[in-house]
Amino acid sequence: MNDAVSIATAVREGKVTALEVTKTALAQIAARDRQLNCFTDVTIETALLDAARIDREIAQGNNPGSLAGVPFAVKNLFDIAGLTTLAGSKINAENPAASQDATAVVKLKQAGAVLVGALNMDEYAYGFVTKNSHYGATHNPHDLQRVAGGSSGGSAAAVAAGLVPLTLGSDTNGSIRVPAALCGVFGFKPTYGRLSRAGVALFSSSFDHIGSFALSVQDIATVFDVLQGEDDRDPICTKRPAELILPQLNQDISAIRIAIAGDYFTKGAEPEALAAVQKVADALDIIEYVIIPEAHRARAAAFVITASEGANLHLDKLQSRPQDFDIATRDRFLAGALIPSSWYLQAQRFRRWYSDRIREVFQNVDVILAPTTPISAPLIGQQTMILDGEEILVRPHLGLFTQPLSFIGLPVLSVPIQRQNALPLGVQLIAAPYNEALILRIAAVLEVKGIVSAAVV
Amino acid sequence: MRREEFDVGVYVDQMALLLDLQLRDEYRDGVVANFERIKAIAQLVNSFPLPEEVEAAPVFEP
Q1: A-chain residues within 8 Å CB-CB of B58?
Q2: Which of A148, A181, A222, A408 fits as disulfide partner to A138, beta carbons 3.0 to 4.6 Å?
């Protein structure tokens, strides 16, 4: 499948119509999604109407936008007007339909993209595997026996399978980066507050971000530029002016200081995950390491805050109908409701301390490399694994390297590393807040060198 | 004063009552196990000394 920008170019030039592209995507979904289980809703009717409207605009000589005729889908916690926002839960299925689209959906549509549906996720985004007891597991297109990762598993798998070239997801502790790595596509989580979350069901608002999945760096940059901007409907959305990345994408990177995350980010992982980082480092001629201090404590603090905020958000439902929660999230939500306030506040204060240390780290380096996940995609239903001779729980371990970064809202792109006869892996490119441009410029170089690439399977 | 042993099961049951959470038998043990896990993880944060002037800030500004 072509990337989103190539599709939009072909549509604008009249080489293909938006309607043809949309029908192809809908046919792909119909043919393959029974196996993959990425979609929880397919919006056939509105997709065809929207595509026809794009074609009319082109026929009238108008430019429908940078994503003209590009089919896209969103994690089912984004509001879609006329559909009930599930957020992966059975309880929310009883809610009325959303009256308007989430801001991000509005912006993509304004750029000419065509919404084709909503995507599967872990219930209330509390998970790293997209094994949902209400809506089923999403399967990894590289190996159907394996998880797609989560919680935005449907978003990652839909792109990896070529059902759509572009999806949106959300990332609280790694929920974009983990599935992007396990499915072998690009997954981008910009700085906390950079993109509006209006119309997106929250999970743990201190860390909730939205972001995108795509097949190329150019697509990631294009979508980021489309989604930027102030939004009164999201109280933490930045007041900074948009900084367009696409025009900067091919700028020289020789002045960007890059280092590999040492210590914590080199332990608790399979050798192949560290080899993926090394491959990127070698391509960029990087040998320096940098230490992110107290990363293990940052992960712990993220865990406490997430459990506490998530439980608070859903407390009324935990009180009135705990039996309707997914068995995979229920006990964790209930336990999270019992956390003493002092623990929560200490974790929030630690977050400030940790941000101050990371600010110091970024005085000497601009971009940091780290593995996205410590392992490639585990089997669906796999509970434990042996690592360094120790038995550990698979699901929480998938967030080992992502949690200490979203904890303070750093922008991170997970770049896909394809391997022969092996499952894909991801490498995180991490920058200081609002330095998305540096990350994407490096990714563009890695893509040209053939080191990173998204595979459609 | 004598320092009493903390009983996580009693804590979970009592806090659940306070918060009006009905813990059915089928998942009460799972909640206790999860709270044990949270407690161990929170200890990592709670044992880290922070100066008094460190206040929480919602957004990391560079």
Answers
A1: 206, 236
A2: A148
